Amino acid sequence: MSAPRSAVEALPDPVAPAAPGPASPTASRRSRRADLTLVTGAVLVGLVVVLALVSFVWTPYDYAAPDPAARLQGVSAAHPFGTDRYGRDTLTWIMMGARITLLVGLIAVVIALVVGVPLGVLAGMTRIRWLSGLVMRGSDVLLAFPALLLAIVFSAVFGPGTVPAMCALGIAAIPAFARVARSGTLQIMSREFIAAARTANRSPWAIAVTHVLPNIGGLVVVQASVAFALSVLAEAGLSFLGLGTQPPTPSWGRMLQESQQYLGTAPELAIFPGVFIAVAVLGFNLLGDGLRDRLDPTLRGRE
Amino acid sequence: MSALLSRLLQFLLTVWAATVVVFALMQVLPGNAAQVAAGLQATPEDVARIEAEFGLDRPLPVQYLDWVGGMLRGDFGTSYVTHVPISPLIADSVQVTLILVLASMAVALLIAVPVGSTAALLRGRAAGAVLSGLSQVGVAVPNFLAAILLVMVFSLGLGWFPSSGWQAPIEGFGGFLSHLVLPVLALALVQAAILTRYVRSAVLEVLREDYLRTARAKGRTAAGALAVHGLRNAAIPVITVAGVQLATLLVGAVVIEQVFVLPGIGSELIRAVQNRDLLTVQGIVMVLVLMVLVLNLVIDLLYTVLDPRVRSRS
Q: What is the overall mean pLDDT for chain A?
């Protein structure tokens, strides 16, 4: 790779495993640690997924039904996570909130992936310089809009809600996917089998589908996991500001916002949604790290 | 030199493109701004009057040029909703946000550099793994959750610091600081967790360098060799990340200002969004985006100055 075009591109990757050196642990130790990271991440993500799935068939209480007799009850056998100011069961709300968390993350990642990856592959494969330049400069412009800021703008223009939030977070994540796809593609394009495929007169389209996409798949999956974590964080922040998912749909960020009035008397109202936001983000981050370490051989050549 | 010029040109082009994006976003729903400003009971005549008053009946390119031209002169226009000029509002509130963001970055670096270096030196040992694990958890904690937990412990529990509010430095420096502690910590702790990971990997990178091995062969301890020869080199990537993270902090401040009821630019942004005061939103968003872009430019230039290797290559 030539001189880094910008400072950010030249950064060392904080989570990529260090190159083997005299002081580095043996390969088997490293892969065991990668597996531990992967398994921990999968378990945490699995927990959130299970909560969301179970909520479709069963929740301890009706999330929409207030129970004035059970207002602001602490942790108890009947309400393992306590109840809110309307007497609604917090565990039920956590389970329902898991749905929105996963839905927003999923749609945002799908938008970013479906738009970003083809653009990145195009920028990496094309020999028309202005075309790849256009894609990369476009992603520079988009990078100037942090996800949460873009989501706030969308809520100002379209009104607050889950759909504008998903779209904004997805659009904000496009540049990251485009960059990852492009750098992966550039790397693949210099390999001999691409030259062979070109000599054999395969069309660029065929090369992209049969050679490039399978080879950058790992990078994209890792990026998807990281982007999922970022989207969960941003959605929680947006709902916390009251500009994301609107009532009566339960969301963790909103639960945290509403808990603020009762911090002194009912701290569990803040702690449970807070812990679950952190669990979801940590889960997707660890999953991404673990996958990255697993896919190490293909990623190594990136440098 | 030509590299510098092309970077500056790229910066200006990006800023221009950003103004187009921001302006276009606000025009997605036509007639919206005047409709909202006129109120729910407004007759079509009311809306037309407001459109005429604020020039919203002009063609869009004219409105765009008017807006950009105004900004170049430091005039962001007058809100259709509150009829207040936007520039003084931005100028006042951005100071609060900058204090918050810069103080948070300073505190985050003060935490991250020693912790990250220690984690790198203790690599492969239990203590190093614990530090890495802690930073991994820290990254997953949203800053508003950190804020709420800090308020619970240090404000409601121990009563050491106020749970919200702002005091300007001239009204009393003690009060200024005590109002600043919890918001800064909320932003800085999460940021420190992110930076710790970069410091650790940067130090690990440096520890493998030949000159450090030479220094150790000459009898220095690992920590000593690092302190004398390594940290300067490890600083380059860390400063770069810290710069990039300033943009993250800027957006994080929007949320934290809400939690602590601080009169920063984030609070103004949220208030404008709630009032559907689109011109104010437009101005504030443009200021925030511009700050992000300027930061990126400064980091890139700084990077070239700090790292002679990049300079010779480009």
A: 82
| Facing residue for A282 by CB, picked from B136, B272, B292 | B136
CATH number of A25-58+82-300: 1.10.3720.10
**What are the pLDDT digits (tens) for A68-101?**
776 777 777 677 777 777 778 888 888 888 999 9
pLDDT band at A1 (very low <50, low <70, confident <90, very high): very low
Domain ranges within chain B, ordered by starting residue: 2-86, 91-306
Q: Does A169 touch chain B (CB under 8 A)?
A: no
Does residue B130 belong to the interface with chain A, where contact is any CB pair within 8 Å?
A: no
For position A262, what pLDDT does the model report? Answer: 81
Residues 25..54 of A with a Cβ closer than 8 Å to B: which?
25
Q: Is A237 on the interface with B (CB under 8 A)?
A: yes
Shortest alpha-carbon distance between residue B169 and chain A (Å): 27
Strands (E), B149-225: none
Reduce the secondary structure of chain A to three states and give it as a string: CCCCCCCHHHCCCCCCCCCCCCCCCCHHHHHHHHHHHHHHHHHHHHHHHHHHHHHHHCCCCCCCCCCHHHCCCCCCCCCCCCECCCCCEHHHHHHHHHHHHHHHHHHHHHHHHHHHHHHHHHHHHCCCHHHHHHHHHHHHHHHCCCHHHHHHHHHHHHCCCHHHHHHHHHHHHHHHHHHHHHHHHHHHHCCHHHHHHHHCCCCHHHHHHHHHHHHHHHHHHHHHHHHHHHHHHHHHHHHHCCCCCCCCCCCHHHHHHHHHHHCCCCCHHHHHHHHHHHHHHHHHHHHHHHHHHHCHHHHHCCC
Name which of A164-168, A244-248, B88-92 the model is least confident about: A244-248
Burial A222-241 (b: 16+ CB within 10 A, else e): bbbbbbbbbbbbbbbbbbbb
Nearest CA in chain A to B147: A260
Contact residues, chain A, for B124 at CB < 8 Å: 23, 25
What is the distance in angstroms between the Cα of B286 and the nearest Cα belonging to chain A? 10
Is the CB of residue A210 less than 8 Å away from at least one CB of chain B?
no
Angstrom distances, CA of residue B149 to CA of A282, B7, B143: 18, 43, 10
How far does A264 lie from chain B, in Å, by closest CA?
6
pLDDT for B198-229, tens place per residue? 888 888 877 777 777 777 777 777 777 777 77
- Cβ distance of B22 and A153 shorter than 8 Å: yes
Q: Where are the domains of chain A?
A: 25-58+82-300
Residues of B in contact with A174 (CB under 8 A): none
Cβ distance B255 to A148 less than 8 Å, yes or no, reads: yes
Does the beta carbon of B168 lie under 8 angstroms from any beta carbon of chain A? Answer: no
Q: Which fold has domain B91-306?
A: MetI-like fold (1.10.3720)
Query: Average per-residue pLDDT in chain B?
Result: 83
